[in-house]
Design goal:
With 122 residues, the chain is α+β, with helices and mostly antiparallel strands. The chain has a single domain, classed as Electron Transport, Fmn-binding Protein, Chain A (Pnp Oxidase, Chain A), CATH 2.30.110. The chain has helices at residues 4-10, 51-59, 95-103, and strands at 15-22, 25-32, 37-39, 42-47, 62-73, 78-91, 109-120. Strand 3 and strand 4 (42-47) form a beta hairpin.
Length: 122
């Protein structure tokens, strides 16, 4: 599901937007492409803040993630992006948490996104 082009995009720096929805509507938080770690169809993201994101995920685990890079060829020209739709949960222990803590010692939790759909948008 996660393509080589997607992996190419996250190898270049860019902004990642995380969209969750809670009782008071949509919330957007951001991180960086270089923080994403891929394991199978899961995207692991270090979290130090993201408190509102976590609150929303506890109410509604659906998430949308967008990311891109101007440095990767898209459908017609340079620059491409992706929309990931799936479910999310926050990890505070376990194998994925330990893996991410070693790479990003400042994290307090890990946001795990299980992708259900990964679409190239540009």
């Amino acid at each position: 599901m996660i393509s080589e082009k997607f992996l190419d995009v996250i190898s270049h720096e860019g902004v990642v937007s995380l969209v969750t929805c809670g009782s008071d509507g949509a919330h957007v938080s951001n991180t960086w492409n270089s923080y994403l770690v891929i394991r199978d169809n899961k995207i692991l993201i270090p979290a130090a803040g993201m408190r509102k994101t976590q609150e929303n995920v506890e109410q509604n685990d659906k998430i949308k993630v967008t990311l891109g890079s101007r440095e990767v060829m898209g459908y017609r020209s340079m620059g491409t992006g992706f929309l990931v739709e799936g479910t999310a949960k926050f990890l505070e222990s376990g194998e994925e948490y330990d893996l991410m803590k070693e790479k990003f010692p400042w994290l307090s939790r890990v946001l795990e996104v299980t992708s259900e759909s990964v679409k190239q948008t540009l």
